[in-house]
Every structure is written in C-alpha cells, then in structure tokens.
Amino acid sequence: MKVTIKDVAKEADVAPSTVSRVLSDNPKISEETRKKVMKAIKKLQYKPNAIARSLANNKTRILGVVLPNEAQDLLSNPFFVQAMKGMSLYAQSKNYYITYAFSKDENSEKEYIRDFTTSRLVDGICLLRAKEKDETIEYLKEIDFPFVVIGRPEDSNNILWVDNDNFKSMYDLINKLIENGNRDIGFIGAREQWNVSKDRLKGYKMAGEINAIDFSKEYIIHMKEFNEEEGYKATKEILKIPSISAIVATDDLLAFGAIKALKEKEIGNISVVGFNNTPLAEFQNPPLASVDINAVDLGYYGIKLLIDKLEGEEIKRNHYIVDTKFIERESFKR
Prior knowledge:
Blueprint (H helix, E strand, L loop, with lengths): L4 H8 L3 H8 L7 H14 L5 H8 L4 E6 L10 H16 L3 E6 L3 H14 L4 E4 L7 H8 L4 E4 L9 E4 L2 H14 L5 E6 L4 H16 L9 E4 L4 H11 L7 E4 L2 H13 L6 E5 L13 E4 L2 H16 L8 E3 L3 E3 L7
Parallel strand pairs: 1-2, 1-3, 3-4, 4-5, 5-11, 6-7, 6-8, 8-9, 9-10
Antiparallel strand pairs: 10-12
C-alpha cells in the first residue's frame, strides 16, 4: 500500500499540515519537529508527490530562467554554463527546480515571460542581462511578479539584482595597463545598450581621464554580438591606429578574435585582455589574460535572492556585488 502524508503524520505524532511544512522547508518549523518528521519519512520510505505538494501550497517550486540569444550555443559562450551551475547549486540546496528558456530575440523573450507569468508555471524568474529602458523588467514590476536580474538594472534600488562592479573592474584593468607602459589602449565591446557594456566603457574612459589620457573615438569599437568573429573584425579596425599597444575586450570571445587578428598579421607586442575568464582562455595561443567575474557566484547569489523573497525571508539587501580578479597570462605583455 502506498504511504501517504497522513501515515507520516501519524508516525511522527504531528498534524499532516506540519509534515507539509517540513517538506516545503518552512522556516517556522522547529528543528526538533523537523527531525521527528524526517525520521518518520525515512522509516516509512515515504516519497512525496511533487505535483500534489505544489497544488496544495499553490507553489511549483520551479524557477524560470530566460537566457538571451547569445546563450543558445553554450559551448561557445561558457559564461552561461558557469552562471547556470551557480543557479542550480543554490536551487537544489533549497529543493527548487529550474526550467530554462532560450530567447531568439527580444520578442521571443517577451513571449516566454508572459507564458511563465500568466500560466503560473514558475514561482519566480531570473533574467541574465539588464539594459536601458528594459520593457521586460518594467512588465514584471507592473504585474508584481517575483524576479531577479543578473546585471545592474537602471532602477537599482527597487529590484533584486546581482552583478560585479563593472566600472571598477575595467578602471583597475586600464590602470594596470597604463602602469605597464601602455597609453594607446583600444576598447572592443558589444551590445552597447546593455548596462554591463556601459559600465565597463565608463571605467575605461575614467581611467584614461585620471591619467591625463584622452582615448579618442577611433580607439573605441562597439560590435553587435559577443563572439570571436566580431572581435576579429573590430581588431582589424583598431590596428589601423599604428600606436596601439594594448586591446581590452569586454568578453573573452571578443578577445579570442583579437588574438586571431594579431596572429594573422604576425604582431606579438600588443597586450590583449578579456573579461569572464572562460575555461577556454588559458588554451589560447598565447594564453589569454582575463578578468574573472566569478560567473558561478553571480548565478548562485542571484537565485539566493529570488528564493529568499519567495520563502518570505527578511530581505536585508536587494543586491550582491561579486568580486572580480585579474588573471594574468601571456597575452598581457610585460
């Protein structure tokens, strides 16, 4: 005969509702009661019905993660794999599941969001980018649906979010290059409307200003996508400036393209530095110096914020700033 939640309650000498609260990890349940119920579950080999639990609690314990178009080829952009790993680690520790949706463009992203929210298939949503005048964020705020953003949103006070200090990370990197004797430093970015791109560009410009260096417009190139081909094209343009001695790219994939263009022209004295410190960075030729943004932590703390809200925890902070670290490799010329 199948063991029911009532059987567990009888064995543990508690109410069936108490068993449900233990299964949903309710913080109001005492440790003593939780141990007593878990002991009964183990003894009776009770297997809770996830669907029944979600219906009873009006919760699915499922989180929706909407990935941008760049994430569709996960092998070529490992940032998303690392962020997803962090998300899964925290979600599993709290008995939540994650469903992923890949958006082809802005319209398909909106469709996924509306499907998630109107059908109530998920309890909360995680977005993996923030941009100016973000309609998706405004929609979720308007309908008061729980969500978190990996990236700094424009309304940084009233939204749950997690990010690096992208301004400071780029500012520190440019100062490091200047201290190493570089004054002509090219900048390659993509997705100009994304806040992460804006913040890194601001850090680049401010570092130049503080060091009395005026980085001209020719030094700065914005591409459409974060990929190797775009980095290759941008570098060929930057190399038209003969004095360039270093190139920073806002993503490792762009930096891979820069290395390819330099090798093609047999140029070996220009420093190249990327961002993200993806696993493929150290296998470039030369190995790519990169700013490690700790993508696993970004995903982990993003989901933590969201689950804390869903569980009714006291939200003492609406965001986390994850530290970055410069990883020096051979592409950083001394």
